[in-house]
Amino acid sequence: MLPVVAIIGRPNVGKSTLVNRLAGGRDAIVHDQPGVTRDRTYRPGFWQDREFQVVDTGGLVFDDDTEFLPYIREQALAALTEASVAIFVVDGQAGPTDADQEIASWLRQQSVPVMIAVNKCESPELGGALAAQFWELGLGEPYPVSGIHGNGTGDLLDVVIAHLPETTPADARDEIRVAIVGRPNVGKSSLLNAFVGESRAIVSPISGTTRDAIDMQVRRGEQIYRLVDTAGIRKKKSVDYGPEFFGINRAFKAIRRADVVLLVIDAVDGATEQDQKLAGRIADEGRACVLVVNKWDAVEKDSHTVYTYDRQLLGRLYFVEWAERVYVSALTGQRVPKILDLIDQAVMQHRRRVSTSVVNEVLAEATGWHTPPTTRQGRQGRIYYGTQVSSRPPTIALFVNDPKLFGDNYRRYIERQFRQNLGFEGTPLRLLWRGKKVRDMERASANRATKV
Fold first, then answer.
1. Is 231 annotated as contributing to ligand binding?
2. Among residues 14, 28, 21, which one has the least CA distance to residue 47?
3. Model pTM?
4. I need a surface site. Which of 6, 137, 278, 352 has the fewest CB within 10 A?
């Protein structure tokens, strides 16, 4: 695992802006409002020949125990516990405050080296004078930086990497990326904590607790999983521009980047209209999917409950009827380990390739049992052959005389035959119906290329 650099400071001093600068991206949500960052969020960083993880934490406030502030302090302490070095971010424009003094006193009690980054020093001429005010914090030399423009961050990183141990990072190509998505308060953060075995994400009954995408690595045997907890996704009309808007955009980005999406459903509420929309988005993005029905321990059950619930679930989430389903309790840990097995299976099917001969054997049997439809004018659809053209998701091109001759019912029948004979559990399967004109054009193009 990569060494950790923890970013600490009071609210609105520009911690997330500096994280984006140090990590070379714009993944951390930046908004002019206190309390946007709550959980600790990890971003990959690189300087000279060293790789590390930058951990953004929420703004520290010690004299207030309302709402999320105690949880934020808990997450900041957890970040310091695993960090090789901490960067204490202060506001150069505001100068040292009582809150800065309180945080500095707390940091002196921790067993981690601390660097002071005096942010908002956009002017190189004035930066030194602004930074000099912070010698009084008693944590060593303050470094003037600008998270917005990048001034001074190189000098800061030169000092930071001197405290980092040398490591050999795991090969990121072998990671399975898993996005955990769902409506607010369905238990996504509880599920992440159950995987990791620690309080990695803040769990609260207050809707909208998680605002940014929180990622964590989990290893099982030789396989590494990168789990990404995302903000709860509400109806678009209910979302105002601000932290929640940015968090939901991060969630959609996590879906696009994922190998597998865990769509978490509240067992008590059942599948809602918003869950349907999320299922449709997952299918449209071509992502593998596992349906995780959480809070199963809160449902009164008899011998028929799971079967009845399963039918109702598939009836509403028909967009992902191919997804495997698991009924869990993140609170008790019931069947949580089984989710990783289903993730492995979904990834394997999502990346699977089938030979052209096997594809055409399935087509021959399917058309033998149920011939393509015939129009009133006597025109009948014909499938000449099929071949898999890509994976992630598996995509099969079917070359036919005229795609218009194949209605939705017959297209669904062909897809069912592929699934019944070849599997593809847990992944969408795309069929491309290509007409004779398209096929002739492709052949002519190939012939021209061969002559050249």
1. yes
2. 21
3. 0.63
4. 352
Structure tokens at 111: 């067993």
Q: Which DSSP string corresponds to 378-396?
A: S-B--EEEEEEEETTTTEE
Is 120 marked as binding a ligand? Answer: yes
140 marked ligand binding residue: no
Helix (H, G, I), strand (E, B) or coil at 335: coil
Annotated binding residue at 56?
yes
Tell me if 440 is assigned to a ligand binding site: no
CA distances from 145 to 19, 92, 125 (A): 12, 9, 12
- The answer to whether 396 and 368 are in contact (CB under 8 A) is no
CA-closest candidate to residue 171, choices 260, 51, 257, 84: 51
- Torsion-angle region of residue 112: left (phi > 0), alpha (psi -120 to 50) or beta? beta
Any known ligand binding at 13? Answer: yes
- Helices 15-23, 153-160: axis angle to 10 degrees equals 80
**What CATH code would you report for 356-451?**
3.30.300.20
185 is in an annotated binding site: yes
Nearest to 207 by CA among 148, 274, 302: 274
* Residue 388 contacts residue 396 (beta carbons within 8 Å): yes
Q: For 110-132, what is each residue's pLDDT tens digit?
A: 889 999 999 999 887 788 899 99
Same CATH topology for 4-163 and 172-349: the answer is: yes
Place of tokens 């030789």: 222
CA–CA distance, 33 with 16 (Å, rounded to integer):
12
Diameter of the chain measured on Cα atoms? 91
The architecture CATH gives domain 172-349? 3-Layer(aba) Sandwich (3.40)
Its sign, for the CA torsion 206, 208, 209, 215, is: positive
Q: In whole angstroms, what separates CA 21 from the centre of its chain?
A: 21
Q: Where are the alpha helices (DSSP H) in 4-59?
A: 15-23
Does the annotation flag 114 for ligand binding? no
pLDDT digits (tens, 9 = 90+) for 290-343: 999 999 999 988 888 999 999 999 999 998 999 999 999 988 888 998 999 999
pLDDT band at 443 (very low <50, low <70, confident <90, very high): low
Residue 444, number of CB atoms within 10 A of its CB? 10
In the three-class reduction of DSSP (H, G, I as helix; E, B as strand; rest coil), residue 26 is classed as coil
CATH number, span 4-163: 3.40.50.300
How many other C-beta atoms are found inside a 10 Å radius of the C-beta of residue 125? Answer: 7
Residue 191 in contact with residue 171, Cβ under 8 Å? Answer: no
Q: Is 189 assigned a ligand-binding role in the annotation?
A: yes
Residues 359 and 366: their CA atoms lie apart, in Å, by: 11
